[in-house]
Design brief:
Structural class: alpha+beta
CATH superfamily of one domain: ANL, C-terminal domain
Helix content: 10-25%
Strand content: 25-35%
Radius of gyration: 22 Å
Largest sheet: 5 strands, antiparallel
Number of strands: 18
Shape: globular
CATH architecture of one domain: 2-Layer Sandwich
Number of helices: 8
Distance between the termini: 51 Å
CATH topology of one domain: GMP Synthetase, Chain A, domain 3
Length: 338
Amino acid sequence: MAKQKRSDDWGFPRWRSYGDKGRSAAKVRLCDREGCNEIGDRPAPKAPHSRERWYFCEAHAAEYNKNWNYFAGLSPEEAARRAADEEQGNSGFRQSAQWKWAGPGDGTRSRDEMRALSVLGPRLWQAYGQGESPCTISYLPPYMHLDNGDGRLDERLSSVGIARTGVAVRVVDGEGNDMPPGENGEVIVSGDVVMAGYWNNPSATAQALRDGWLWTGDVGTFDAAGLLYLKDRSKDVIISGGSNIYPREVEEVLLRHPAVTEVSVIGRRHPDWGEEVVAFVVSSAPVTAEELDAFCIEHIARFKRPKAYRFLPNLPKSNYGKILKTEIRKLLESETAV
C-alpha cells in the first residue's frame, strides 16, 4: 500500500528544528499562514468541537482574529446561497477567514462548491466523517482549494481530502486487505475519536468495529497522492447484471445537464438483471426522459444509464439538507404496490 498522506506531510503543522538531531533538539512551530516562515506563537480562536488550533505570527494573528468567522456544518447549498448574496452585494461574508462544511453530501457538491469558491476565494474547509467518527476522518483545508498549477484542481475538489491528525484511514476489500490506489473498497478508520460502540447493541457494534477499525460503509478510493475520494454508500451500490453501478457517478453526469438542478439515483428490482437504475429528477426547465437518456449515453456506459425517470418538484431532505434516499425508496415502493 502506498504511504497515505497525513496532514503533517502537507505542511500543517510546520516546525523548525534547533540544536542537534538527538534528544536535545528543539522544535518551534511556524506560522500556519501559507508562505510565512515566522514563528507561530499566537494561537487562533479554536473552532467549536475541533481538536485543531492554528498558530500564527503576531502580524497574521491580528489579521486572522479581525476577520475570523466560523460556520459550523455549513452545507454546499448554504455556501452557494451565501455566495449568491455576496454577488448581489447583500452580504458581508466575503471577509470571513474560514468557511466550513461537512462533506461529501450528494452530487450537487462540486457545482455549488465551485460557485462559492468563485466568489469567496479559498476560504472553504471541508470535513468528512460520520456519527461514529464525527467529521474526523479526512479534511480538505483552504490551501488545497487553491489552483497551484498542477492541473488537478477540479479533481482535488471532488475529493474529501487527506486523513485528519491522529486518524488512520484505509481503503480495503471485504477481507480487510488494502486496495491499491485507484481501486474501490470500503473506507475504514482508526483513532481515539472513533466511537466505543453502539449503545446496547452489541451485534451492530461487532459488525462496525473489527480489530480496532471502524468500517464506515462508504465506498472510496485513494489516489497516488493520498487524497481520498468517496464513490457511494456500499448499501446504495446498484448491482445490475453482475456489474456494480455507483449512483453518485450517474448523478454527477445528470447534474451536468443545464435543466437538472437536483437528482437522486436508486436501484429498482428487475426480474432478469437483479436491479435497474431509476433517477428522481428536479429540473429548472422542461426536459424529457428521452433527452436525459441521450445525454447519459454521451457521458457514461449505456448499462449505467437510468432505465426510468421520475420528475419531482423537490427531493425529500433532512434538516441538514441531505437528500433522503430512504424516502425516495418509499416513493418507488408505493408505485409498485399500486
